[in-house]
Design goal:
Layout: E1 3-9, H1 16-29, E2 34-38, H2 46-50, H3 60-64, E3 82-85, H4 98-111, E4 114-118, H5 125-131, E5 136-141, H6 145-160, E6 165-173, H7 175-180, H8 185-192, E7 196-201, H9 205-211, H10 223-235
Parallel strand pairs: 1-4, 1-5, 2-3, 2-4, 5-6, 6-7
């Protein structure tokens, strides 16, 4: 059985979709069979972060309704082993049958090494849907106080759903920001109460890649792209140091 990993955040703007795309790309590049599922119903953009806008033609609802097979999920045009199910755009989140969705996830876990669920930000039905069938979670936050408070509350909700392995990724980190809020990484870990999986530095390559509709890891080998690679290695149990955040 593969790992079912939900990537979520307490609020929008933390960069969780970029992280999901980066991890999916890196795991596939390391020989893992990966299925990425965009769970943000009506507001899907994982296809943009993956550079798959032109081939994001199958939604998870298509598979749930048996209009498509799971194997019909489009493959990444450049990265072998990476497939995407996008979110439906013409239905409301509350109309998605969670039991049938769970069967889809179970089937996917039997066919892939990793099933990555890009959960919608905030707390609601979409979050519940994505988190209900995961056995592992990454919580993405930035270093500001509001994001950390939201992350702490979201971590408690994930724990209530029975997810025991929850790890923190702090995104858009700069040393100057940490100094300005009089904080450091140990303080952030203590505040949220989660083990730290990775640090991602502020990187201008991220919006450039999104604007050009291409996967970040195909455009850069440093900064945020390197951080995603290190996080992916740590997910696989490899020894990979945290990114060093410079001024």
């Amino acid at each position: 059985m593969g790992e079912v990993l939900v990537i979520t955040s307490g609020k929008g703007g933390t960069g969780k979709t970029t992280l999901c795309a980066g991890i999916a790309s890196c795991l596939a590049a390391m020989g893992q069979k990966v299925l990425a599922i965009d769970c943000d119903i009506g507001l899907n953009n994982l296809d943009i972060a993956l550079g798959m806008t032109d081939c994001a033609t199958v939604s998870f609802l298509d598979v749930m309704m048996e209009n498509q097979y799971l194997s019909d999920a489009p493959e990444h045009p450049v990265i072998p082993g990476l497939q995407l199910l996008t979110a439906p755009t013409k239905t409301r989140a509350g109309l998605v049958d969670d039991i049938i969705f769970g069967r889809l996830i179970e089937e996917a876990a039997e066919s892939y090494d990793w099933v990555l669920l890009d959960a919608p930000a905030g707390i609601g039905y979409g979050f519940d849907l994505a988190a209900a069938y995961a056995n592992r979670a990454i919580l993405v936050a930035t270093a500001d106080a509001g994001s950390l408070r939201d992350a702490q509350q979201t971590a408690a909700l994930l724990t209530e759903k029975g997810i025991k392995q929850i790890e923190l990724v702090v995104n858009r980190v700069t040393r100057r920001l940490l100094n300005s809020v009089r904080s450091n990484i140990d303080d952030i870990m203590d505040h949220v109460g989660l083990p730290l999986l990775g640090l991602i530095p502020e990187d201008p390559s991220v919006p450039v890649a999104a604007a050009n509709g291409s996967a970040l890891v195909l455009r850069s080998r440093k900064g945020a792209a390197m951080a995603c690679l290190r996080i992916s290695r740590r997910l696989l149990g490899m020894d990979a140091p945290l990114m060093h955040i410079r001024y």
